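ok trying again, last paste got cut off:
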Amino acid sequence: MENNQKMNDMTTGSPASLIIRFMIPMFLGNLFQQFYNVVDSIVAGQFLGVQALAAIGSTGSLMFFVIGWLNGLTSGFAIMVAQCFGAKKTDRMRHYVAMSVYLCVAFALVMTVGLTVANEPILRMMNYSEEILPAVKSYMEIIYLGLIVTIAYNALSAFLRALGDSRSPLYFLMISAGINVVLDIVLIVSLGMGVEGCAYATVIAQAISAVLCFFYIVKKYPILHLHKEDFHFSWHSIKKLLGLGIPMALQFSITAIGTIIVQGAVNVYGETYMAGFSAAGKLQNIVATVFVAFGATVATYVGQNRGAGRLDRVRQGVRCTQYMILGWSVIAMILMFFFGKYMTRLFVSPSQTDVIQVSVLYFHTVFWCYPFLGSIFLYRNTLQGMGYGFIPMMGGIFELVARTVIVLLVAGHTSFRGVCLADPAAWIAALIPLVPYYFCVMKKSGAKAG
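nice, full thing came through this time. structure:
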């Protein structure tokens, strides 16, 4: 008997209530996923010093490039699962899950080999100094070798969310995040492994979350139990999955390339700026996790309602989510402007005033633009949930161009504040194709876009 009480049909009921109830576990889950790299940075900064914090923390943009690709890819696959679930086509839904398994294994293998080979050339392009390069190289090699468990967790949790279950992936992440903390302390503090210990702790913790997620689906979700006929290979189905997965993955990775370019510009200013920028980025990512959760929630909500033909509910859900995003943006602006200085002390001792000042400078430069950042996740994920992949990808390209232009104009020519302006420019630019296209789509679909 199917575990219907865990599944969440989002085609009926109050849109605002459904979105909030789904979003909260999503937010907590994303928060714990952020926890991996944040804990690595905290332990490195407190126990190994500023150079280790600069080494691990500065990999955030590169990690976002790799993990973002996998997350976007699997989220795209899950859109088809959500649409089939909303349309009550469970046989077709299982077939898409099976085809997704083939694609996930293939991408994991190709990326592991390719990124391991290209590891050092990529890092040299990012202007890492010879003092930091060996540590960063070792850290990323271990992360790359663990990509198979990363994509496994992302895919399994995406399938659960497509059925409306955002709580179960959260519980597994909470468990693995706790394990990650323990492993960080044991491997680094007790065994003295250095930055490699952080990487091993991350991969092991992610593997545990993937295994827990798999066995939970086996036990609780008969609707996702795959049969031999589900694995019948279909190029048509593969193309449909890639048609959604690739643009979403590219959108994440294009954005990540922009952050890598900015990180390379920051690296020129030295370890103090690298450490301060890294700490600021980690804190901002935590605040932005609310935006990410709203986006992922809207993707599932829109996917199910699009599958059920309820475009009126799509419009209602987008409108109320926009209000909630604006509300959180105001809170985030206040937090980061006035309290960013104190939160940075999580990563470095209070005596590291230069590093803290760099973090504060970043927050004071970008805080006003958080409403634009939040709106990106809303409109991008709405369009993706409706099955449109190209325009969300174009939003990522607009981001990349804006960041690149700012970096080329200011990096090495002006102060660090000039480099910080790359983020606001990118956030505003991303909305240029997204917002008009959303209203155009809703108008053509016969739904009021007001």
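cool. The chain has one domain: 15-444. The two ends are 42 Å apart (CA to CA).
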